Amino acid sequence: MAHAAFVIHSRPYRETSQLVEVFTREQGRQSLVAKGSRQPRSPLKGLLQPFVPLRLGFAGKGELKNLHHAEATAPAIRLTGTALYSGLYLNELIYYLLEAHTPFDEVFDAYHNTLTKLANGEGIEPCLRHFEFYMLNILGYGVDFTQDALSGEAIRPEAWYRYQPESGFIALEQAEPGAYPGDHLYALAELDLSRLGVLASAKRFSRQALGPYLGGRVLRSRALFIKGKRGSRSE
């Protein structure tokens, strides 16, 4: 059986092969051995790259399966600049948040659509926030933006709230650093990111909400993005 897939990570394995992490539509995240893929004349050499829509054939009984066949089903999704770092960030979310060998066909489609939007020049921040919120909800980590997690009362647009990880939003007597305005929370409930202030609140919330599930890891895509920005400033 062939599987729609994207490569999300790869590394050298032995002398001429690779260990390839792929995200498939039908069987979720899989670890594959691509034998001989680093040989100069291997047809896989330029194929097993991120953001290339693939159809893969693989088999095996253990955690690590053998790749038998790979073909591109469409040209590579071309990401450059900040969009490229954003695509790498999506790959890290897939790698760290999704359980291996579990189908997430809707997540696969959302991932593919987000990559396409990034390649088409749509706003990077809204694209990432939409995907992060989607991931939180699909994995059961979402929160209610319209109800106080402590009192159970409706969020008041004029009030201020702090985020309690893995619980929700709790009312404050007054504003404090990092607090969320109630009207921003209602906008987040509707995924209305048209205001810059709400977009900033969405980014802050995503980092707070995803943090516990990323295990405190420093994501490589963020480190590369910061390094790239520093390099451009020094030129």
Automatic annotation (TrEMBL):
Keywords: DNA damage, DNA recombination, DNA repair
Location of the DNA replication/recombination mediator RecO N-terminal domain: 4-74
One Pfam family named in its UniProt record: RecO_N
GO cellular component terms listed in the entry, alphabetical order: bacterial nucleoid
InterPro entries, A to Z: ARFGAP/RecO, DNA_rep/recomb_RecO_N, NA-bd_OB-fold, RecO, RecO_C
UniProt record, GO biological process: DNA recombination; double-strand break repair
Domain of life: Bacteria
Entries under PANTHER family matching the protein: DNA REPAIR PROTEIN RECO
Family (UniProt): Belongs to the RecO family.
Chain's role: Involved in DNA repair and RecF pathway recombination.
The protein's name in its UniProt record: DNA repair protein RecO
Species: Oceanisphaera arctica
